[in-house]
Amino acid sequence: MIRKRGYSMRGEKVAVRGDFQRKPRISVLALSFVSCCKDFVYSARGRVNQYPGSNSVWILDGASIHRHPEIIKLPAKCRRGPYFLPAYCPFFNPIEFLFGFVKKAFMRH
């Protein structure tokens, strides 16, 4: 892939170095998310815990790992329903700002 735009001093040619191929994206959190959710749901069975209580709900955004069939079934087994946030509403999910900051820091280094 050849870059069409770049930055350089005025009057000089743009120096383009490197291999600019888009690589597949990797989600590190998705590796253990399903097992962590199972541990969270099944930890309340057989003993008294404050969370998850009878009035607890799961609020999830539209990430593909959150829509996994196993994740959707887990709260239903404990008589809790998952609630999904509307699409493109990061202001309902403040952790997205932190994820964006961390993502930019990784891309810089």
Automatic annotation (TrEMBL):
Residues 50-107 form the Tc1-like transposase DDE domain. Pfam families: DDE_3. One of its GO terms (molecular function) is nucleic acid binding. It comes from Phytophthora infestans (strain T30-4) (Potato late blight agent). This is Tc1-like transposase DDE domain-containing protein. It comes from the Eukaryota.
